[in-house]
Amino acid sequence: MKRHLLSAGDLTRDDAELVLSTAEEMRSLADRPIKKLPALRGRTVVNLFFEDSTRTRISFEAAAKRLSADVINFAAKGSSLSKGESLKDTALTLEAMGADAVVVRHGASGAPHRLAHSGWVRSSVVNAGDGTHEHPTQALLDAFTMWRHLGESRPGGLEGRRVAIVGDVLHSRVARSNALLLRILGVEVTLVAPPTLLPVGVETWPVETSYDLDGVLPKADAVMMLRVQRERMNGGFFPTPREYSRRYGLDARRMATLQDHTIVMHPGPMVRGMEITADVADSARSVIVEQVTNGVAVRMAVLYLLLGGSEPFETPADEAPPEGRAPQGPPEREGDE
Amino acid sequence: MTSYLIQNVSVLGGAPTELLLKDGLIHDRYDEGKDRVEVIDATGLVALPGLVDLHTHLREPGREDAETVESGTAAAALGGFTAVHAMANTEPVADTAGVVEQVWRLGREAGHCDVRPVGAVTVGLDGERLAELGAMADSAAKVRVFSDDGRCVSDAVLMRRALEYVKAFDGVIAQHAQEPRLTEDAQMNEGELSGRLGLAGWPAVAEEAIIARDCLLAAHVGSRLHVCHVSTAGSVEIIRWAKSKGWNVTAEACPHHLLLTDDLAATYDPVYKVNPPLRSAADVEALREGLADGTIDVVATDHAPHPHEDKDCEWAAAAFGMLGLETALSIVQETMVDSGLLDWAAVAERMSYAPARIGRVHDHGHPVEAGQPANLVLYDPSVRRVVDASESASLSRNTPYAGMELPGQVVATFLRGRATVLDGKLQ
C-alpha cells in the first residue's frame, strides 16, 4: 500500500485484495464480546471533517478505537471556501499535534490530495470523501460486502461478476471510487442513470453505461442504488422526483426481475421512496445494514495497513481475547472530542 | 537623456545592423563626432518593437497585496512590454473617468511602461447598465478598450448597445466570452478528466456560443469586437468564419493556452487554475494554428496576480489566474517560433503592431526603423533559463512555469528611447 489512500484507482489488485482479506480478519472481531486490538496503540488518528457526515465519521472513529489508536475528532465547520480557517492552517495545527493519520472529509474535490502533496503534513492521509471526486473506503467496504456474498466461495473471487450502479453518477464520489475499484477486481460495472446525471467523458471509463434500468437489472449480481440529493431535485437534471422514481427507482416490481442471488446495496443515507422503496430497502436481498458493519472492518484494515506498516496482522488466538494483551501497553488515552 | 547605439542587432531576425536611439526616436545614422552614446553590443540579439499587452491585471486600486501599477509595469518592462492595457476589474471597478485616470496617472508615475486603462462596459461589472463609456473615452486616459473581463457581458441587448455606443469614439468591446449559466461553479475544462477528478466542468460551448453570438451582433451593428483569451478549437473556427465574412472581429490567445493543457489539473494544484481553463492538446494545437494563420490577431498575457494564500489551498477555493508578463515572449518563442509557425516579423505583428492597432495606442506598435518612436526590446533567443518564481518583479508568485526551462531572455527594453530594462535588469 502507498502511504495515503486518496483514490481507489491508486490501489493495485494486490493492495485491494490485501485490504479485503485484512478486513475479513477484522470483521471476525466484530463477533467477539471484546472488539479491540492493540495494533495501533499510541498512534493518533485525526478525523478531520469539513462536511457533516456522522455515519462516516463514527465508522472511522470506531475503526480507530478498535485498533486502540487515540482518536481526535475535528469537525471544522466551514472550510476556507466560507472564509474560515484555511485547510492549510488546519493541517499545520494537526501536524503540530502529532497526528499519524488524518482522515479527511471535504466538500472540495482534491482537498485530500492537496493535504497529502503540499508538504503541509507528514502523516498518512485517508480520503473519507472529497467533493464529487472519490470515497475510496466506501468502495472498499462495498467490494468487501460483495465479496462476502458473491465472491468468497468462488474461485477468482468477484472476477466477472456484474454490478449495476444506479443514480446520480455525475455528483457521486461513491460511484467514481466503485467504478475504479471494481474494475481492478475484475467486476463488470454498468452505470445506470438518466443522461443528465452521467459525467461528460464517461464513455472513456472502464464501465458500461445504460439509460435503461429495466434492461440491466436481470443480469446484475449486485445493484447499488445511489442517493439523489435534494439540491439535485430542483437542479433541472430531471423533470420531477416522481418521474425519476418511476424510471430509476428500485421498487418491488423491479426487484422481482432480479436473479435469486442478487444483492441490493446503498451507501446511505437513503431517500426512501425516491431511489429505493422501503420494502426493497428492508427486504432479504438488502445488505445495506451489513455495509455499515463492514465499513468498520474495512476502515480498520485501511488504518492498520497504512499505519501498522509491513508488520503482519496479529490474529488473536481463539482462546485469548485480544484485549488480554492490552494491559502490557500504556493505558488508553483517548482524546475524544 | 542617454542616447544608445545598438550595434550588430538583428531587427526582426534580419541581417545585423546598427540603431541609434536618441531623443525618443530611432535613427539609422550615427555621427561619431556629435553624438555621445552608450554603446550596446547586441550581437546575437533580436530587436522587436516594444510589446503591447491588451490584457493585464494590475490589481490597483484595491488589491495592492497582489500587484500594484508599479510592480506590474515593472514585470511588464522585464517581459519586453512598453505598453499594457490594465483591466477594469479592480476595487473600485474602473467604470468611471476618475478611476481610469487614476490608473493612467499611476502608470505615468511608475514610468516602466505606458498604461492604457481598460474601462468597464457595465457599472460595477454587474452586466446591468452601461458605465459612462464616453466619459472614460474623453478622459485623460483616452480609453478605447472596454471590457467586463472576469465577467461576460452575457445580456444580448446590453452587448448590442455597448457595441453600438463605442462607435462614437472608435472604441472596441473586448468580451470575456463565458456563458454564465453553462459555467456555474465551473472549475476546469469540461471533458473526460473533469468527470474523473470530480471538478465541475467549463465546457467549450460556453465560450463558443458567446463568441458566435457576439460576432453576429458586431456584424449586425457594424462595430468592433475583440475576443479575449480564446481557448478552444471551436472558437478559432468561429472567428475564422467571422473574419471570412469581412466582419470587424479580432481575437487574442494567452501564452498559457498555447503551452499548457488541462491534464495539469490532475495535480489539484491551483497554480494551474485559470479562466478560461487550460484546455485539451487539440485545442492548444488549434490555437497555435489560428495564431499562425492570423485568425487570432494577438498574444495577450491575461497576467493575473494573486496573493499566495489565494492559491495555497484546495482547488475549488482558489482564485483563477496566473502570471504572464515576464514569460510571454519566451512561451511564444517556444510554441510558435522554435516550432516554425511564426517568424520574428510575425511575432512583432501579434505582440506589438496588432494589439496597438486594436487598442488604438498610436505611439506604440511601430516598426523598428528610423523615424519611429524608440519603443523596442532586445531579446536573446539563444539562451535557456529555468523560471524562478521568486525572481519575478510581480508582487505575486502564481506562475505555472516555475521550475520549467524556457527559451529566450529579454535583455533590454526601451520606452521612447529610455532604457526601462538593461542587461536583463530593471532600470
Explain what you see.
The complex is a heterodimer of chains A (337) and B (427). Chain A has helices spanning 13-30, 54-66, 87-96, 111-117, 136-151, 173-184, 213-216, 230-233, 241-248, 252-255, 278-281, 288-307; strands at 44-49, 70-75, 101-106, 124-130, 162-166, 188-192, 208-210, 222-225, 263-265. Chain A is built from twelve helices and nine strands. In chain A, helix 1 packs across helix 12 (288-307), helix 5 (136-151) crosses helix 6 and helix 5 (136-151) crosses helix 12. With 337 residues, chain A is an alpha/beta fold. Chain A folds into two domains: 8-133 and 294-328, Rossmann fold (3-Layer(aba) Sandwich); 136-290, Aspartate/ornithine carbamoyltransferase (Rossmann fold), CATH 3.40.50. The relative contact order of chain A is 0.17. In chain B, helix 7 (233-244) links the parallel strand 13 and strand 14 (249-253). With 427 residues, chain B is α/β, with parallel strands linked by helices. In chain B, strands 1, 2, 3, 4, 5, 16, 17, 18 and 19 form a nine-stranded mixed sheet that branches. Chain B has a five-stranded parallel sheet with strand order 9-10-13-14-15. In chain B, 28% of the residues lie in helices and 22% in strands. Chain B folds into two domains: 3-46 and 372-426, Urease, subunit C, domain 1 (Roll), CATH 2.30.40; 50-359, Metal-dependent hydrolases (TIM Barrel, Alpha-Beta Barrel). In chain B, helix 1 packs across helix 2, helix 4 (156-165) packs across helix 6 (204-221) and helix 6 (204-221) packs parallel to helix 7. The interface between A and B is medium-sized, with 29 and 24 residues.
Number of strands of chain B: 19
**Largest sheet report of chain A:** 5 strands, parallel
CATH topology of the largest domain in chain B, by name, is TIM Barrel
Based on helices, strands and strand pairing, what is the structural class of chain A? Answer: alpha/beta
Q: What is the strand tally of chain A? A: 9
The first-level CATH class name of the largest domain in chain A? Alpha Beta
Q: How many helical elements of chain B? A: 11
Class by alpha and beta content of chain B:
alpha/beta
Helix content of chain B: 25-40%
The separation of the N and C termini of chain A measures 30 Å
**Mean pLDDT score of chain B:** 97
Mean pLDDT of chain A: 88
Return Rg of chain B in Å: 20 Å
CATH class of the largest domain in chain B: Alpha Beta
H/E series of chain A, N to C? HEHEHEHEHEHEEHEHHHEHH
Shape of chain A: globular
